[in-house]
Amino acid sequence: MRPSAAKKFWIETWGCQMNELDTQRMAGQLMQSGMLPTRDVQDADVILLNSCSVREKAENKVFSQLGRYRRFKSDNPDLVIGLCGCVAQQVGETALDRNPDLDFVLGPARVGELGRILDRRRSGERVVATGFPEERHFDIDTISRAGSYKGMVTVIEGCDKNCTFCIVPLTRGPERCRPLEEIVIEVEHLVDYGFLEIELLGQTVNHWRQPGGQWDFADLLDRVARIHGVERLRFVTSYPRDFTPRMVEQFARHPNICPYLHLPVQSGSDRVLKRMGRGYTVGEFGDLVEQLRKARPALALSTDLIVGFPGETEADFQDTVALVEDVGFASIFAFKYSPRPGTAAVHLPDPIDDGTASRRLQELLELQVRIQRNLNEQLVGSEMEVLVTGWAEATQLQSGRTACHRIVHFPAKPTAQPLGSMAPVVIEKANPHSLLARLQ
């Protein structure tokens, strides 16, 4: 007798690297239960929407997608749909009231319970699993890492900063650090699996502290960088005021720590930074950049910027423009301010109209295109190693990332390079957002 076909699942992911890793964790649990991933959402028996709530647009997108997927239940009455991630934590039980075809709500701190949640749903219960349990087990053997080119490792969860615009403390909970030895074991596991690049994750990754001990993020960087087989080491996202001189020193000490750092500044105006509750000044941020580039002269920096924050004057915005010009960021992630429920900024006076915010955003993005093109042109003729990550769309080019995190496209000749491998290239042309190269 032919065995029955395996059940299939589909996971759609929005947001940060933490969400990407949560998706890998959920996929691993489903595969261990005998389910298989599908490339066609209409074939799925379980659909998971792993959501982001940092901006309102991302939140709206997940509910729009949920409205589309619910129609599949007419053809498959046994289809299970789950809302996961930060929006799930934010809206909780109201999501079930709002969407009668939604089967369960699963917050990011409880993704390890997915199997039990599905069992409860199959017994007839519509489940809400949110909140932040004291104990959380990271089962590294149930993470589906197939197809990934880098190994991601959570080192700290949650955030205690309470910036006035940010919803992360409400959706990811308070800070919780994993023990150093547990992190080291997972990194060694990933190296044994074959990963050449390791990325340490946390909402405020450089605020990691050994639970009950004295070690800080500088000690963690030093320990992980020394693990044999870690060819590239990255970490994201760093908080500017949490950097210490010892952490900066690690950039100079370990060449396998990538010459790239994402360092969100959010604004170039001290007045706006104070209203944001960031806890540092533009001058202090500039001093940190100087220290980092002294330790690693070729360091590429990226940042996050918010325009149109309540009370932002034209002078404040021009301060941000000046900062972007002075620092010379390799890339920026800039957005219009998005009010988030439960944050302090929604109560601030002097909101900025959408037209003004849109104009400022466009001006900032146009400036950054010019800066990026200039920085990329300086790399033409240089020899680099890229970590192969995939294929460029609608071309015969493969894609990869340099150690400084720039995207490189190169011809797949004479043979395609395996994903996750290193490929030596020579940069031949610069575009604002990518580089073109040839294989050496």
Structure overview:
This protein is of the alpha/beta class and 440 residues long. It has three domains: 8-129, Rossmann fold, CATH 3.40.50.12160; 140-377, pyruvate-formate lyase- activating enzyme, CATH 3.80.30; 383-439, Beta Barrel (OB fold (Dihydrolipoamide Acetyltransferase, E2P)), CATH 2.40.50. It is built from 13 helices and 19 strands. It has helices spanning 17-32, 56-69, 86-91, 94-98, 114-122, 168-172, 180-193, 217-225, 245-253, 270-276, 282-295, 314-327, 354-377, and strands spanning 8-13, 36-37, 46-51, 80-85, 104-106, 127-129, 151-154, 156-157, 176-177, 197-201, 232-236, 260-262, 300-307, 331-336, 383-391, 397-401, 407-411, 422-430, 435-439. The protein has a six-stranded parallel sheet, with helices on both faces. Helix 8 packs parallel to helix 9 and helix 12 runs parallel beside helix 13. The chain is globular, with a radius of gyration of 22 Å. The termini are far apart. The relative contact order is 0.08.
Chart the SSEs and their pairings:
Blueprint lengths: L7 E6 L3 H16 L3 E2 L8 E6 L4 H14 L10 E6 H6 L2 H5 L5 E3 L7 H9 L4 E3 L21 E4 L1 E2 L10 H5 L3 E2 L2 H14 L3 E5 L15 H9 L6 E5 L8 H9 L6 E3 L7 H7 L5 H14 L4 E8 L6 H14 L3 E6 L17 H24 L5 E9 L5 E5 L5 E5 L10 E9 L4 E5 L1
Parallel strand pairs: 1-2, 1-3, 3-4, 4-5, 5-6, 7-10, 10-11, 12-13, 13-14, 17-19
Antiparallel strand pairs: 8-9, 15-16, 15-18, 16-17, 18-19
Helix pairs in contact: 8-9, 12-13
